[in-house]
């Protein structure tokens, strides 16, 4: 009887640990999705800025002063392209992390059993 009570206590502890882990994982995934959306918005803003700079560069490439302005705009465009590539790299990394977390969650859930695994185990232990 003492062993049964100890096993039930251990089971309850494991069940609460599992729930806490699941909640923490869901919170992490939501946070990562928020970061992804932010990066996508920044990415779109940078693309728009590059398009505007390209348009200005095309208009301003007349004469010597236009050439100087064009060179400055080209430097800005290159810098923005570099920043855009970095943002895309970060976005890919976040997507990879989310995919890994989802795979870990699926793996953990498969080890736990079905949705009623906890209740079924408790019923079996009470018999």
Describe what this molecule looks like in 3D:
This protein is an all-alpha fold and 127 residues long. The chain has one domain. The chain has helices at 2-60, 63-112, 117-126. The relative contact order is 0.12. The model has no long low-confidence stretch (mean pLDDT 82).
Evaluate the radius of gyration.
Answer: 27 Å
Shape: rod-shaped
DSSP helix count?
3
Low-confidence stretches: none
Order of H and E elements: HHH
Largest sheet descriptor = none
Give the % helix. over 70%
> Could you give the distance between the termini?
12 Å
Domain module tally: 1
Q: What is the number of strand segments?
A: 0
Hey, roughly how much beta strand do the residues contain? under 5%
Mean pLDDT: 82
The structure class reads mainly alpha
Give a quick rundown of the structure.
The chain has 127 residues and is mainly α.
Short key terms for the protein model shown above:
rod-shaped, mainly alpha, 127 residues
